[in-house]
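Subject: Sanity check before I submit

Could someone independently write out the structure tokens for this chain? I want to compare against mine line by line before I put it in a report. The sequence has 332 residues.
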Amino acid sequence: MGQGKQLISVIVPAYGCSATLGRCLEGLFGSAHRDFECIVVDDASPDDFSALLKPFPVKLLKLEKRSGPAFARNRGAEAAAGEILFFLDSDVRPRPETLGLVAAFFEKHADVSAVFGSYDDEPGEPGFLSQYRNLFHHYTHQVSREKAMTFWAGCGAVRKEAFRSVGGFDEHYTRPCVEDIALGYRLNRAGYEVRLEKTIQATHLKRWTFVGILRSDIFDRALPWTALLMRQEKLANDLNITVAARVGTLGLYAGIACLAAAVVWPLVAIPGLLLVAGVILLNGSVYGFYLRKRGLWFALRAIPMHLLYLFYGGLAFAAGSALYKLGFRKDG
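---
Independent answer below. Compare away.
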């Protein structure tokens, strides 16, 4: 590959990903943009990647012990020759145009230090939960503002100079959780601009289960993200923490409380049902998106899943806030 100033160093942290790494690299090396290098960082994975990597001209870094994606990405960045560091998860398959869009973005926006995109609307796994979850990520990024306070390392790039100046990813995060969000906050505080470019998309290959969704949303996102938010001057109205999401969550709790009280006072069920209906209407754009993409039956099933997401997300935020105020401030 090329060695020019705009060489893109693609960094892929890898652990337990034999099922998806090959497809990730197939997509990457099928890119129309050819001026890139690829660094795969083996985070002491139990998998043997040698057969998977053989067809691809990648640089392989092997870590002695499992340390998490933040640590792995930082080691990849240290070995990178390019001025642009493109972070790609091992279960994400870039489109043929993805790298070219990243390169073109940085050429056009010399004042922007980082950019990230979204999953596309064609998830790699066909099951309802995988489709629901990955499409929700796509929707969230597609309706969010372009000037971002956070960052996303599933498919996102940073100028090497900016990345180094803020110290890279926080290695206290030993699990895949909010290390990329934390990087975005630090970039913004240091005066670097981060953008969400909605045309930069890639396919998520992950197969989601119900338990996996709960574990990821609560323990790898909501709780550590709450600790991050508690240290910010204000809550950003963006991504998963928009004002509408907060209002909807409060409305849902009020509706559930009324419905519970209706066991004793039946008439209270009326405002309870109205509140829940109001929350559904407030999130009509989400359900309309599912309707357009996957049809009525899919959208009807998505409604209770999304309401459940609001329910446990709010509880996790409350729990995280309480733990933070009590001094339990571990966020990694």
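---
OP: Matches mine. For the report I'm noting this point. The chain has two domains: 8-126+137-208, 239-325.
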